[in-house]
Amino acid sequence: MLDFLDAERARIEREVEAQQRDLAFAAVRSVVAQANGWSEHQVASRIHEAETARDALPNVWKAFSTGEIDAARVSAIA
């Protein structure tokens, strides 16, 4: 999910006018929500947790990436 979001964020920042970027990011979050059967609020929460773990808690992210901990534990830690 984060790889897709990062790629879309880079594309949007490169191709979309500054005043339309928030709307474009919201559209990407909506696509992720629809694809996973989640609400947009759930997507926002999961994105925040995942980005926090990846960017601020690299050991937690590594443990999650290797299957040592599950998403529920990442959520509790983040």
Account of the protein in words:
This protein is mostly helical and 78 residues long. The protein has one domain. It is built from five helices and no strands. α2 packs across α3 and α3 crosses α4. The model has no long low-confidence stretch (mean pLDDT 93). It comes from Aeromicrobium phragmitis. Keywords: Coiled coil. This is DUF222 domain-containing protein.
Helix tally? 5
Low-confidence stretches: none
| Overall form | globular
What series of H and E elements makes up the topology?
A: HHHHH
Structural class: mainly alpha
Q: In the residues, how many domains can be counted?
A: 1
Main sheet? none
| Content of β-strand | under 5%
The strand count comes to 0
Which value, in Å, is the CA radius of gyration? 14 Å
Helix proportion range:
over 70%
Mean pLDDT: 93
Organism: Aeromicrobium phragmitis
Keywords: Coiled coil
Protein name: DUF222 domain-containing protein
Coiled coil: 2-29
Keywords, separated by commas or semicolons:
mainly alpha, DUF222 domain-containing protein, 5 helices, coiled coil, globular, 78 residues
Which helices and strands, and how do they pair?
Layout lengths: L1 H14 L5 H16 L3 H17 L1 H8 L5 H7 L1
Keywords: Coiled coil
Protein name: DUF222 domain-containing protein
Entry summary:
Helix content is 79%, strand content 0%. By secondary structure, it is mainly α.
